[in-house]
């Protein structure tokens, strides 16, 4: 068993494709197939079932995949710590991000500062929903991810507070109010976000027993803004995702806070403190310097 075989196993499981795994590693597809067969022979188990161009992990394959990720993560952390001991800040950093709040408001500024401070660290970004990012952390697919707190099963580091706001067409009478009572949503067409905030918006509606008239369900913030601009309904989004520049491009949209006020805390999360690599630790420290300690 080699680290290369484990890496190939993890990549094939992640991409569900021999071809994509081979492209990622810049090797032939036959080399990927040979490595997996060697690993199966070494363990005397079948890791994957391949039928009609689809790949499915066996039960033992799913169990061993978790351990393979742990081994590779530990090996990567050891390499980074050795390099750090020689004063060389090198390695890789895999970051998970969700929605416009993290991906637009937080991540670009943070990445720019991080690259200036640690130019030799290779960075990979995975984007998904808040729940997906947390799952990736659990599975060690990423080293650190943005998360809406609390996250009881993860180690978390708070960064800042955000609130939810309503995007309202100017033609709607309630756009003249200074805030939107969440109960009033039931009287108007509603546009549900399918992006990173969906789970939290749905939880908010359940909390106040609101059953809105869902007209559309959309995942792109710009699409939601355009629909509100066309007077098609009200939407609830995170305040950090809504810049003044975006609003200026949609003159028929106003944003209003909700009554009651709805806050959420955004931070970074890792699986456990023992396995934090130097590159990950540096990223968390920089994020806290830039956001948390300035609140």
UniProtKB/TrEMBL annotation:
Gene3D superfamilies on file: 3.40.190.290, Winged helix-like DNA-binding domain superfamily/Winged helix DNA-binding domain (1.10.10.10)
Alphabetized UniProt keyword annotations: DNA-binding, Transcription, Transcription regulation
Keyword Signal: no
Domain of life: Bacteria
All residue ranges annotated as the HTH lysR-type domain in the record: 1-58
SUPFAM superfamilies associated with the record: Periplasmic binding protein-like II, Winged helix' DNA-binding domain
Cellular component GO terms, alphabetical: cytosol
One term of GO molecular function: DNA binding
Pfam family, one: HTH_1
Family under the similarity heading: Belongs to the LysR transcriptional regulatory family.
Protein name, UniProt field: LysR family transcriptional regulator
Taxonomic source organism: Acinetobacter celticus
Lineage: Bacteria, Pseudomonadati, Pseudomonadota, Gammaproteobacteria, Moraxellales
